[in-house]
C-alpha cells in the first residue's frame, strides 16, 4: 500500500502534533511547518489527520498502489 501525504502549509500552525503521533516518522519540522519527508513510510493510519487541529493534512492512496493490486497473470 502506498500513500500520498500532503500538508497544506497555509493551514499548518506548526504545533508538531503530527510529528509526535506518526508511528513511522513521516513528518519533519522545517521552518515552523510540518513536511512529509518520509512519505514512503506512511501506513495510512490517519492518526496525523485526527490530531491536526487545523485540518492541514491529507492522506490519499496513490495510483500505483491500485495498479499493483489489480495486476493478474496473462
Ligand atoms: S497516516 Fe499514519 S503513518 Fe501516515 S503520515 Fe499520518 S500518522 Fe504517519
Write a structural description.
The protein has helices spanning 17-21, 47-51, 63-70, and strands at 3-7, 27-30, 33-36, 57-61. Helix content is 24%, strand content 24%. The chain has 74 residues and is α+β, with helices and mostly antiparallel strands. The chain has a single domain, classed as Alpha-Beta Plaits. It has a two-stranded antiparallel ribbon. Strands 2-3 form a two-stranded antiparallel ribbon. The protein has three helices and four strands. The site of iron/sulfur cluster has 14 residues, from helix 2.
User: Which fold does the CATH topology refer to?
Assistant: Alpha-Beta Plaits
Report low-confidence residues grouped into runs of 5 or more.
Answer: none
Order of helices and strands: EHEEHEH
- The total count of strands amounts to 4
What would the average pLDDT be, to the nearest integer? 90
- In total, how many domains does the architecture comprise? 1
Question: What is the gyration radius calculated from CA atoms?
Answer: 14 Å
Tell me which CATH architecture applies here. 2-Layer Sandwich
Bound compounds: iron/sulfur cluster
Overall morphology: globular
Report, as a whole number of angstroms, the end-to-end distance.
Answer: 23 Å
Query: Structural class of the secondary elements?
Result: alpha+beta
Number of helices: 3
In what order do the strands lie side by side in the largest sheet? Answer: 1-4
Amino acid at each position: 500500500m502506498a500513500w500520498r501525504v500532503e500538508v497544506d502549509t497555509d493551514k499548518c500552525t506548526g504545533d508538531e502534533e503530527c510529528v509526535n503521533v506518526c508511528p513511522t516518522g513521516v513528518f519533519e519540522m522545517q521552518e515552523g511547518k510540518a513536511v512529509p519527508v518520509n512519505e514512503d513510510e506512511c501506513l495510512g493510519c490517519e492518526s496525523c489527520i485526527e490530531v491536526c487541529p487545523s485540518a492541514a493534512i491529507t492522506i490519499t492512496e496513490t495510483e500505483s498502489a491500485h495498479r499493483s493490486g489489480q495486476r493478474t497473470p496473462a
